[in-house]
C-alpha cells in the first residue's frame, strides 16, 4: 500500500516528466478580488455562467471557477473573492492578496453609479488601502526576490503602448484593475451635466491608474461586456478591442485605449481650478467632483466596530440567543432578580 509520501513523490515526478518532455500544459491559475458595491457578487455569478440567485456577501467570501482548454487537457482555475460591507471591512483586503499570488492577482472595483455622492469616497478608500497593501508586498519581495518585484513593476505598463503620449503623466495600479460602474439604467436617467461630470471623472481615474472601465446593469448585453473583461483576467480569454466613450451610452474602455487628450480637462472653469490648490492631478479631479457631489456620510461608509451589530449580517435565531445571553450577563453583573431576568 502506497504511503502518503509515496503518492506525493509520484505526483511530483509526474509533473516533472510532463514539464521535461515539452508536452506539458501549464495550468492557468488566477485570483480576482471584487469589492466596492455590495452587489458585486452578481458579476462573479455571471462570469461563471452559473444559474444562481446572487445573495448579499457576508464579510469576505470565496468561490472558484474552472474552464476547460480542450479535450483531455487540464482545466484553468480562477479564484474569486468578494469583500462585503462596502468600506467597513477594509482590513480584510490583506487576506486574499499574498506574496504567493501577487503575480496572478487582479482587482474588480464595483461602483454604484446611482449613488454619485458615495462614489468617490468608496473608490478612494478601497483603492488606497489595496494599493498600500500591494506596495508593501512588492517592497518585501524586492528584498527577498528582486526579479519578481521587477517583473510586477514592469507588467504594470503592459496595457499601455510604449508610444502613448500619456506615458509620463499616469501612475498605473500595481496589479490589473477593472472599474465597473453598476446600475447604468438608473444613471442613464440623470441630468446630462451630472452624467458628463461622472463619465469624465471615471474615465480620468481609470486611465490614470491604467484600468479598464465598463458601465453595466442587469441588461444581459451590458453584463456580457463586463463578463468579457472579467474572463480576460480570470481565464486569459481574448481582450475586446472595441471602445465606447460616448457619455450618452454605456462606457466601455479597455485599459490603455483612452488618453488625457480625449478625456479633456476637468469639468470646471480655469478660475475655479486655480482656487482649488490641488497637489496632484487626482486631487484636482477629486475636488472638482466633490464640488458637484459632496460626499455623504452614510452607514455604508462608516466603520463597523462590532460586525455583530451590523444589520447586513442579521440572523434571527442567532441574534435572539445572543440577546438572551447578554441579558443574563447584565442581570448577574447588576445582581438583579426580577421576572425579566432568567
UniProtKB/TrEMBL annotation:
Give yes or no: UniProt keyword Cytoplasm. Answer: yes
Q: Which Pfam families match?
A: DLIC
Protein's cellular compartments: Cytoplasm, Cytoskeleton, Cilium axoneme; Cytoplasm, Cytoskeleton, Microtubule organizing center, Centrosome
Whether Cytoplasm counts among this entry's keywords is: yes
User: What are the record keywords, sorted?
Assistant: Cell projection, Cilium, Cilium biogenesis/degradation, Cytoplasm, Cytoskeleton, Developmental protein, Dynein, Microtubule, Motor protein
Q: Where in this chain does the entry annotate a coiled-coil region? A: none
Please list the GO terms describing molecular function.
dynein heavy chain binding
| Designated name of the protein | Dynein cytoplasmic 2 light intermediate chain 1
Location, primary (coarse class) = cytoplasm
What family is this? Belongs to the dynein light intermediate chain family.
Report the InterPro entries cross-referenced here.
DYNC2LI1 (IPR040045), Dynein_light_int_chain (IPR022780)
Q: Biological process GO terms, please?
A: intraciliary retrograde transport; intraciliary transport involved in cilium assembly
GO cellular component terms, semicolon-separated: axoneme; centrosome; ciliary basal body; cytoplasmic dynein complex; microtubule
Amino acid at each position: 500500500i502506497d504511503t502518503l509520501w509515496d503518492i506525493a513523490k509520484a505526483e511530483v515526478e509526474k509533473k516533472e516528466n510532463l514539464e521535461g518532455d515539452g508536452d506539458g500544459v501549464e495550468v492557468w491559475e488566477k485570483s480576482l478580488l471584487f469589492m466596492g458595491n455590495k452587489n458585486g457578487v452578481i458579476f462573479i455569478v455571471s462570469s461563471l455562467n452559473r444559474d444562481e440567485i446572487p445573495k448579499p456577501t457576508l464579510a469576505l467570501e470565496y468561490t472558484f471557477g474552472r474552464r476547460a482548454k480542450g479535450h483531455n487537457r487540464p482545466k484553468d482555475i480562477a479564484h474569486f473573492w468578494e469583500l462585503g460591507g462596502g468600506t467597513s471591512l477594509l482590513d480584510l483586503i490583506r487576506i486574499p492578496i499574498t506574496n504567493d499570488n501577487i503575480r496572478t492577482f487582479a482587482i474588480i472595483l464595483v461602483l454604484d453609479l446611482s449613488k454619485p455622492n458615495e462614489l468617490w469616497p468608496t473608490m478612494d478608500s478601497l483603492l488606497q488601502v489595496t494599493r498600500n497593501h500591494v506596495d508593501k508586498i512588492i517592497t518585501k519581495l524586492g528584498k527577498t526576490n528582486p526579479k519578481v518585484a521587477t517583473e510586477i513593476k514592469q507588467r504594470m505598463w503592459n496595457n499601455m503602448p510604449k508610444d502613448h503620449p500619456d506615458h509620463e503623466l499616469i501612475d498605473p495600479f500595481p496589479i490589473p484593475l477593472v472599474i465597473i460602474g453598476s446600475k447604468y439604467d438608473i444613471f442613464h436617467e440623470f441630468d446630462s451635466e451630472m452624467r458628463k461630470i461622472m463619465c469624465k471623472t471615471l474615465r480620468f481615474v481609470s486611465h490614470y491608474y491604467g484600468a479598464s472601465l465598463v458601465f453595466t446593469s442587469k441588461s444581459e448585453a451590458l453584463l456580457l461586456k463586463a463578463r468579457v473583461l472579467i474572463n480576460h483576467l480570470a481565464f486569459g480569454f481574448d481582450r475586446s478591442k472595441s471602445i465606447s466613450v460616448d457619455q450618452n451610452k454605456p462606457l466601455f474602455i479597455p485599459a490603455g485605449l483612452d488618453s488625457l487628450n480625449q478625456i479633456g480637462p476637468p469639468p470646471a472653469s480655469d478660475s475655479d481650478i486655480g482656487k482649488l490648490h490641488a497637489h496632484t492631478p487626482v486631487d484636482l479631479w477629486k475636488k472638482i467632483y466633490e464640488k458637484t457631489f459632496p460626499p455623504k456620510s452614510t452607514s455604508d461608509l462608516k466603520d463597523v466596530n462590532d460586525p455583530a451589530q451590523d444589520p447586513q449580517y442579521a440572523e434571527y435565531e442567532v441574534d435572539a440567543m445572543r440577546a438572551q445571553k447578554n441579558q443574563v450577563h447584565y442581570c448577574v453583573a447588576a445582581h438583579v432578580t426580577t421576572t425579566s431576568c432568567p
